[in-house]
Amino acid sequence: AAVAGCSDDGSSAAASSSPPGLVPFHGARQAGIITDAQDRLAFAAFDVSPGVDRAALRDLLVGWTAAAARMAAGQAVADDEAAPQSPPRDTGEAIGLTAGNLTITFGVGPSLFDDRFGLAARRPAALTEIPAMPRDNLDPQRSHGDLCIQACADDPQVAFHAVRNLRRLAQGTAVLRWFQLGFGRTSTTSDSQDTPRNLMGFKDGTNNIKREDTASLDRFVWVGEGGDQSWMRGGTYAVTRRIRMLLEAWDRDYLLDQENVFGRTKVSGAPLGAAEEFDTVPLTARGKDGELVIGEDAHIRLAAPATNNGVTLLRRGYSYTDGVSQETGQLDAGLFFIAFQRDPRTGFIPVQRRLALSDALNEYIQHTSSAVFAIPPGVRDGRDFWASGLFAT
Ligand SMILES: C=CC1=C(C)c2cc3[nH]c(cc4nc(cc5[nH]c(cc1n2)c(C)c5CCC(=O)O)C(CCC(=O)O)=C4C)c(C)c3C=C
Ligand SMILES: [Fe+2]
C-alpha cells in the first residue's frame, strides 16, 4: 500500500503531494480538523479501565498512534499472514478498500486529569466540562469520556474499521463509552467544497471558517503560545453535541416559518434580505413594516460573530440517524454537532448559552449528548505519538 506523505496540517489530500484518497497522518496539526470534510463519520468516546496506570495509558497511545498511521496510509493495522494460529490483528473489513481520505483524530477529556494518572497539573484551564444549558436533555451514557477518536472517511466501512480496530487494541486498557455514526457532512471546511444540506433541508456551513482563512484559524481555532499548557500548543478543543431534530414537527411547519427560523432562504441558502448564498448577512435590514428582516430569534443572528463579541467556531458536524425512538415512535435523527475552537469558554459555551435561551430553532431540536475534548497537536513523525507532550518530563 502507498505511504502517506507529510504536511503541516493534514488539511487536504488535494492540496498536498500525497496520492489521491490519502490524507497525510503526520504533521504539525492533527488531520480531521481543517481537512476537507469527508462524507462519513465514526466517533467514539472511551473510558480508561479501572486499575490501568499511567505507563499502560501511554503504551495504549503509542500503539493507537502506530495503528492509526497505518490505517490512514491505506494499510491494515498489521500483517496477519505471519500468525495463522492467532486471532487476526486487523479485523479485515477494509481489505481491498481505498483509504477514502481517512483521517483519525484523537482527543482527551477532562476526566483524564483526575487522580488516576498523575496528570492533574497538566489539565489546561480551557478543558472544563460544558456547563448545563437551558433545555438540555442529556443522556450521561452518551456523554463525556476520557479519550475520543474521530474517524472521518468517504467510505463508512473505512471509518467504522478504524474505530473498531482501535477499540480492539484497547482491550483490557480502555472500554467504549459511546459511539456515534454520521452519514452526511453538514459543514464545509474549505472554499473548494460545496455547501451540503442538513436534515432540515437547509444549506449548512456557508459561514463556517474555511481552511484557507488562516488568520481566523489562528484567532479562533488553534491554541497559540498563550495557552497555559505547552503540550496543547498547536492543538484545539472539540465540543460534540448530539442534537436530535424533531423532524415530524419540522416537516409540518410552513416554508416561510422554516426560513425565519434560520434567517436564510431554503433553496438558495441566501440570507433573508439578500440575493446569494455568500452575501453578507443583513442583520440590521428592516422590511417595509419596519420589522427586522432577520428576526431577533433567527438562528444565524444569535450565532453570528457580530452578536457574540466577534467569536466564532469551526463547525465540522454530521447528520445522524439511530432509527426510531422507542419512547415516542418518532425518528431519532439529527445533527451530530462537532465544533473546534481554541477555548470552549469563549467559543461554544457563550454561543450555546445564547442559542439555548432564545433560538427559534429550539422548538425543533433537543440536545441529547455533550462532550468536550482537548485535541493535541499533530504527531510529528513515526517516533512520536498522540499527546506525547502530556507525558514529557
Ligand atoms: C453553539 C453553536 C451552534 C449550534 C449548537 C448550532 C446548531 C445547529 N445549527 C444548525 C443549522 C445552521 N447553522 C447555521 C449557522 C451557524 N450556526 C452556528 C453555531 C451553532 N449551530 C454558527 C456560528 C453559525 C454561523 C453564523 C454566521 O456567522 O452567519 C446555518 C446557516 C448556514 C451557515 O452559515 O452554516 C444553519 C442552516 C442546526 C440544524 C443546528 C442544530 C441541530
Ligand atoms: Fe448552527
Automatic annotation (TrEMBL):
Residues covered by the Dyp-type peroxidase C-terminal domain: 195-379
Assigned EC number = 1.11.1.-
The note on the cofactor says:
Binds 1 heme b (iron(II)-protoporphyrin IX) group non-covalently per subunit.
The residue ranges flagged as biased composition, category Polar residues, are: 187-196
Where in or outside the cell it occurs: the entry states: Cell envelope
* Named cofactor requirement(s): heme b
Keyword check for NADP: no
Q: State one molecular function term (GO).
A: lyase activity
Q: Which residues form the Dyp-type peroxidase N-terminal domain?
A: 30-183
Q: What is its main location?
A: other
Q: Which domain of life is it from?
A: Bacteria
Describe the reaction catalysed, as an equation: heme b + 2 H(+) = protoporphyrin IX + Fe(2+)
Q: Which UniProt keywords apply?
A: Heme, Iron, Lyase, Metal-binding, Oxidoreductase, Peroxidase, Signal
Report residue spans for region: Disordered: 187-206
Family statement drawn from the similarity comment of this UniProt entry: Belongs to the DyP-type peroxidase family.
Q: What does the record give as the function of this protein?
A: Involved in the recovery of exogenous heme iron. Extracts iron from heme while preserving the protoporphyrin ring intact.
- Name-wise, this protein is Deferrochelatase
What is the scientific name of the source organism? Frankia umida
Q: Source taxonomy lineage?
A: Bacteria, Bacillati, Actinomycetota, Actinomycetes, Frankiales
> Gene symbol?
efeB
